Amino acid sequence: MSRRLAQQVAGIGFSSLSRAFQPAGPSLGAGFPGPLLEVLSQHAPPAGAWSLVQQRSATKKAMGSTQNGRDSQPKHLGVKKSGGQGVVAGNIIVRQRGTRFYPGDFVGMGRDHTLFALKDGRVRFETRFTPTGFQRKYVHVDPNGGAPLHPALANLKGMIEGLEQRKREIMAGKLETTRQ
Question: Which helix (H) or strand (E) holds 50?
Answer without folding.
Answer: none
